[in-house]
Design brief:
Pfam families: ERAP1_C. With about 375 residues, the chain is mainly α. The chain has 14 helices and 3 strands.
């Protein structure tokens, strides 16, 4: 939607044969490549893993506005958003949607793969997103002792006259900040959900609100959103409540067994299972173990014939592709072998194995350096 767009301090996004390749923005003079934000290949549906071997730690740091590392053994330079507003995500204007649109899928996948996932998510929530959300209007860093109000919130829609970028960025930032546990965003979601009505929250931010509240892990919140799901008449409301319920931690509910029940339609079951697998870094292994026990009733609900086999194969591939350790491959192969009578084509296992191996290569090459860098910049006690 923004191919070819350029403005002073803005971004140009390039499109390749298989989707968006990345966005390039105006760089400052001291760091001429700092504003390049490559997209992860897997986000475009290409093979070879979500990150791909070509995407290095430098690419991750570039997405944050940090200069790329010419020497992979060098210590990354300090991340100081207020001093480099032209290249830092955290100091972008609340209307500058394009760089965030390119970076968010990348940062999400790194959060899944990073060996120090808790530390990395702490950095994202309490440093990157908090700096962005707490800045003064217009992208100026806050210098007062009292924190300013959030740049975006669930119950305050974009101001009248806001540009398209600001309207698009608001739900994206709220969803991402909630995913990584931003304290103020989570508290606001928990306050709003119990009294939620059809008109009390802007529809653009409703999905982010529901998912953020459910992720907090309170059983009563899950039950409240569950009631909204059962009462939903509109397809979009049913979809957003379904996805929110699927992301619940185990303390709140068991979305996996719930997906097998009559409340979840057969065509929606895979959405619940994959969303649950992507909810947190530890959930792929939990979901895969569940699939190892439940693959038969899952396949029965998905239906028979070629279409049922395709759905089952795609589901298994989607979950297995989240692993980043090659030690998981035997477990993956075991479930595929057990379900061979249903998933007869080997392409699903082949692609899953290839993705796991590629993810493992990235983690081996860059995981420790990423964790060292995150430890230097994360606020361990938000």
């Amino acid at each position: 939607p923004f191919q070819g767009r350029a403005r002073e301090g803005g971004w140009v996004c390039r499109e390749g044969d298989r989707g968006w390749l990345g966005c390039v923005g105006k760089s400052d003079e001291s760091h001429p490549r700092a504003a390049t934000v490559p997209l992860p290949t897997g986000a475009l549906g290409t093979r070879g893993g979500f990150l791909g071997e070509a995407h290095s730690l430098s690419s991750v740091l570039q997405a944050l506005g940090v200069p790329p590392l010419d020497d992979p053994t060098a210590t990354p330079p300090p991340f100081n958003p207020p001093t480099r507003p032209s290249s830092s995500l955290a100091a972008r204007s609340p209307e500058d949607y394009e760089p965030w649109a390119a970076a968010l899928p990348y940062l999400e996948r790194v959060a899944q793969l990073a060996p120090c996932s808790t530390l990395w998510q702490n950095y994202l929530a309490q440093t990157l997103f908090n700096t962005f959300l707490r800045q003064d209007a217009g992208g100026q860093a806050n210098t007062s002792t009292a924190p300013p109000p959030l740049a975006f919130s669930f119950d305050a829609p974009s101001p009248e006259g806001a540009g398209v970028g600001q309207r698009l960025l608001r739900p994206a930032i709220l969803a991402a900040a909630g995913r990584y546990g931003h304290l103020a965003i989570t508290a606001q979601a928990l306050e709003l959900v119990p009294n939620l009505t059809a008109s009390s929250v802007d529809p653009d931010a409703r999905s982010a609100l529901l998912a953020t509240a459910v992720r907090a892990g309170h059983r009563d919140v899950w039950e409240g959103v569950h009631r909204l799901y059962l009462a939903a008449d509109a397809a979009d409301e049913r979809e957003r409540t379904l996805r929110a319920l699927a992301a619940a931690p185990g303390a709140a509910a068991d979305p996996l067994d719930w997906s097998l029940g009559p409340e979840v339609r057969a065509q929606d079951m895979a959405t619940v299972i994959v969303t649950a697998a992507r909810a947190r870094p530890d959930t792929p292994s939990l979901v895969w173990a569940w699939l190892g026990r439940k693959w038969r009733p899952v396949s029965e609900k998905l239906g028979g014939g070629n279409e049922g086999a395709r759905r089952m194969g795609s589901l298994l591939e989607s979950v297995a592709s989240l692993f980043s350790n090659q030690t998981a491959i035997p477990e993956v192969e075991a479930v595929f072998a057990a379900s061979r009578g249903v998933v007869t084509e080997g392409i699903y296992l082949e692609r899953a194995r290839e993705t796991i191996e590629t993810n493992a290569v990235w983690v081996t090459a860059h995981g420790s350096k990423l964790c060292t860098w995150a430890a230097q910049h994360a606020k361990l006690k938000p």
